[in-house]
Amino acid sequence: MKNVTDSFVSLGHWPSAGSFGFNTDILATNPINLSVVLGVLIFFGKGVLSDLLDNRKQRILTTIRNSDELREGAIDQLDKARARLRKVEMEADQFRVNGYSEIEREKLNLINSTYKTLEQLENYKNETIHFEQERAINQVRQRVFQQALQRALGTLNSCLNNELHLRTISANIGMFGAMKEITD
After folding, report:
1. How does it sit in the membrane (predicted)?
2. Are 38 and 49 a contacting pair, CB within 8 Å?
């Protein structure tokens, strides 16, 4: 330790230029310098430091207030968004229910329409069959009647004389005309 102090002491023996010199006694100079510097800093820096801390405190408080306002705004927006979501979900459920019921209604309408169409086709088929049967029966009747009439005429022609033949023909023509009016 003596070597460290001797080196500082030897610095004190340097020749000084005029009245300016170095005080190498560390223990005597540092506390005085420190107390002077601290005193000046406290005296002059007290206001500046106070202003800096007040400004910082105001910025922090403003930031906290702004963040609280933003948080409250975000909470309000979140509540509104949740309300809209609930409303949209309810509308979607309603559309889904209405869609399913509309599909069921359309399905029933299609089934009923198909049954009606099948019934109409069945009725049309039955009417067509009945009409064709009636037409076939009328054709058979006409042929049977024509054949019977031709046989009767043939029999009459062979058995009758001319005068009786002419009266029979006239009577048959009259009956045939009356029958034709009835069938038309």
Report:
1. Single-pass membrane protein
2. no
